[in-house]
Amino acid sequence: MHTPLQTMAALDTSAIVPAVVDAAVTALLFVVSFVVLYGLGKLVVLRIVRESLQRRGFERAIVRTAVRVTGIVVAVVAVALAATIAGFGVVLSAFAILGGALALAIGFATQDLIANFVAGIFILQDKPFTIGDWIKWDDEGGIVRDIDLRVTKVETFDNELVTVPNADLANAAVTNPTANDRVRIGYDFGIGYGDDIDRAREAIIDAAHEIDGVLDEPAPAAPVTDLGGSAVVLTGRIWIDPSDQVPNATKAAFVEAVKKRLDEEDDIDFPYPTTELTGSVTVDEWEEKPTLDSSPP
């Protein structure tokens, strides 16, 4: 005859064992489903994404990032489907709510980072500039040394490395003088109104031909571009190959060469602004007035 204690133990065991077995089977079903779904997703989806982007000529950085993001999406989808197969409906709903809240919070916290990331994708794909190009934007400029998905590193002519967020470059008007095989350099030179324009133009062109890297075609020129308040302005124009010459250095050499060349011309000078006063000035005769003697008698 069984005692009450023995009966309760038998009932507890008969109730617990099926529950444990059911939980173990459900967990095993979830794990197996996740492994199968995730493995198939990585094998099929990631391969399709990688080959499709590579076939279209996307940059390696974009392809690598797209594959990583796709891998995360595949993992999330595999978890959701595995939970559905295992019968974790309540857990799946809670997971979806939590995931949405996290995505919203992360989106607000990293909106600048996401903007730079998206801008980096467009820069790498559209290629408004590449590594080694000389670019100018917002009164800044330099040589592009590296392009990442988040930032672009630019080396200034002062040998300083500037890290620029890609969103700043995407939202600015970027000038790329080295996009073509020739770039024009110009500088304004002023001569006096009484000076010989033809002789000054000839001196500027002769000085241009003495500079290394100046192209013969298009030929250097020095047209009259302005009649200033105290000078006739001739704009010296030369062309160089930006892949062989540094524009700023060539411009400095051009200005110095023209200055030295014009100094050799006795009848050509560099006028400076002057002010002419007209009218008349009168000076009244000054008379010395006697002063009172304050000394005692």
From TrEMBL:
This is Mechanosensitive ion channel protein MscS. It comes from Halovivax asiaticus JCM 14624. It comes from the Archaea. GO terms for molecular function: mechanosensitive monoatomic ion channel activity. The chain crosses the membrane at residues 15-40, 61-82. The keyword Cell membrane applies. Belongs to the MscS (TC 1.A.23) family. Coiled coil: none annotated. Residues 186-265 form the Mechanosensitive ion channel MscS C-terminal domain. It is found in: Cell membrane. The keyword DNA damage does not apply. PANTHER family: SMALL-CONDUCTANCE MECHANOSENSITIVE CHANNEL. Residues 112-178 form the Mechanosensitive ion channel MscS domain. InterPro entries: LSM_dom_sf (IPR010920), MS_channel_C (IPR049278), MscS_archaea/bacteria_type (IPR045275), MscS_beta-dom_sf (IPR023408), MscS_channel_2nd (IPR006685), MscS_channel_C_sf (IPR011066), MscS_channel_CS (IPR006686), MscS_channel_TM-2 (IPR011014).
